[in-house]
Each structure stands twice: as C-alpha cells, then as structure tokens.
Write a structure and sequence with these properties.
The chain has eight helices and nine strands. It is of the alpha+beta class. Among the domains are: 85 residues; 105 residues, Alpha-Beta Plaits (2-Layer Sandwich). Helix 6 crosses helix 7. The longest helix is centred in the N-terminal third of the chain and has 33 residues. It is elongated, with a radius of gyration of 34 Å. The C terminus is likely disordered.
Length: 308
C-alpha cells in the first residue's frame, strides 16, 4: 500500500506589532531631531552670511578706519547686526513651536495660559521691553552706530561711560573703553548720548598765558602753529581746514586763556588736540613765551582718554 504523500505546512513568521513608542520614535522623534538640527544649521548660516556682509561693509569703509567711516556705513553695520539677531531669535522660536507640536501638546489649549503668562511677563520684564523699544528707535533714528565714539549717561549712574561702539542690538549697546574694558549698557537705560564722531569733530585747545603777555604776539605765534600744522603731511589728512585762533576765552588775575579751534575728521579731534598742544609748547619756547601751568583741551579729561 503506497503511503500518502506528506503535506508541507507553511511556516508563518509572527511579526510583533509596532508599539506606540516605536511609531513615535520612527516618526515624530525623527522630525524633532530634524527641526533642531535644521534650526541650528540655519542660525549658523545666518550668522555666517551676516559676518560676510559686515566684512564687506568694513572693506568699503574709507581708509579702513572705523572712526572715519561714513554715517551710512555705520548705519548699515548696525542694521546688519540687529537683523541677524532678530532672524536667529525667530528661527529658534519657530523651531520651538514645531517641536512642541510634535510632542502632542495642543497649541490651541495654550492660548489662554500664554495670554496670562504674557501679561505677567509684560509686568515683570518691563525693562526688557523698554530696552528693545529704545534699541529700535536708536537704530531707526541713527543716533549712533558701529565705530562711533560716544559718551553715554546711563540711568541712575553717577558718571558717564565713554568708548567706541563695537556692537548695537535691540537690547544692549557694547562699548570698548580706552583701557580696553568692554562696557555693556542696556538701551532702555540710556538717558543722554553725546556722539563725539558724527560727520566731523572739533579739537579745542585753551592755551594759558600770563596776563602780562603780549596778546598780539601770542596770537601771531598760535596762527603760525596752525598754518604749520595744516601744512604737515601727517596732520593735514586729519584736518578739514587750518586751525583758527579764536582769541581770549577767559581772563583771571594772573592768567589768560587763548582758544585755538580746529575742525577734524570724526573721532580724530583727540589726536589733533595732542599734536597741537605739543607744537604750541615748542613754539612758545622758541619765541621766549611762557605757557601757563596747565595746557588742556576744553573737554573733560575722561573725554580725551576715552577716544583711544
């Protein structure tokens, strides 16, 4: 009797179904990683593009000197810094919203809590809002920009801060003082600004002479000093016109103050003032005239030091 042929039973491989965690790891988690990585890469690209634009603006500056660049270049430099900062903040904010959505948090349900939190933040962070609004008007009105030498009086401070502007954002202004110190001032705390390098500057030198001196001779010597300074190859590029002798500025019992004024390139008034004082001292000695005990610029001493 022929045995019946054996039938082969098909083998069925059991596949374990994907759990909710596995599905989330393969879908939402992957998108979250892509959002975070994409935001970081996009922010770095914006920073790289901004640095390239700023380098191009600096390269176009006349003479490559930050203190002598035009007002339009200063404004473009400041605007580039602000736009970069705002763009990077927006990128991270959008990435945060997308990540929260992928975590399954309903954004519609967060409207009421976000409103309450926004009101509380508005009361608690009034200074931050004030800084941002002040920074916006500071940039829009072109009060100062990158490379300007400014004197700032912060709110509540007993003195002033003098330095060269290195960075302007919507929230803060960063200055570099004469000693190399970095001073950060919130824009909302600025109550008074003196721009020492806007369009052109003026070097003012008060020359003290004895009250018995011959004023006509003193004026002639100072006039010759101004002509020689304007003819000097090193000083003439910094001067817009020859220094002018204004005459007697003040009078005391023992001393007279004769004022000399020179218009200079923005930010170069301190250098020109030092050069003029040195030339005046040498010229007075050569002509047998006596210089008073103090020969200073008609500005606070901190102003001259803050422009280095």
């Amino acid at each position: 009797m022929t045995p019946a042929p054996m039938t082969q039973t098909p083998v069925v491989l059991a596949v374990a179904p994907l759990s909710d965690v596995d599905r989330w790891l393969r879908s939402d988690l992957l998108l979250i990683v892509l959002y975070v990585v994409g935001a970081v890469l996009l922010a770095r690209f914006v920073g790289w593009a901004s640095a390239k634009v700023i380098r191009r603006i600096d390269a176009e500056a006349a003479g490559g000197d930050a203190l002598v660049r035009s007002e339009a270049e200063k404004h473009r430099h400041a605007v580039a810094q602000v736009v970069t900062w705002v763009t990077i903040v927006l990128i991270y904010c959008v990435a945060t919203v997308l990540v929260v959505q992928r975590f399954g948090v309903p954004l519609a349900g967060l409207v009421a809590p976000a409103t309450v939190a926004g009101v509380a933040l508005g009361f608690g962070a009034q200074r931050i809002v004030q800084d941002i609004l002040a920074g916006f008007f500071l940039i829009a009105e072109r009060q100062y920009g990158f490379g300007d030498v400014v004197r700032i009086a912060p709110l509540g401070a007993s003195g002033t801060v003098i330095g060269t502007v290195e960075e302007v954002t919507l929230r803060v202004t960063r200055l570099r003082s004469a000693n190399g110190e970095v001073v950060i001032v919130p824009n909302g705390q600025v109550v008074h600004v003196t721009n020492l390098s806007r369009d052109w500057a003026r070097a003012v030198v008060d020359v003290p002479v004895p009250s018995t001196a011959d004023i006509s001779r003193v004026n002639d010597v100072l006039h010759d000093v101004g002509v020689a300074a304007y003819a000097d190859a090193d000083l003439k590029p910094l001067l817009l016109d020859p220094p002018t002798v204004m005459g007697v500025e003040s009078l005391t019992v023992d001393e007279l103050q004769v004022r000399v004024v020179a218009r200079t390139l923005p930010g170069r008034q301190f250098e020109v003032g030092r050069a003029l004082r040195a030339r005046i001292v040498m010229a007075f000695r050569a002509n047998g005239l006596t210089v008073g005990p103090s020969l200073t610029v008609a500005e606070p001493a901190e102003t001259d030091a803050g422009a280095q």
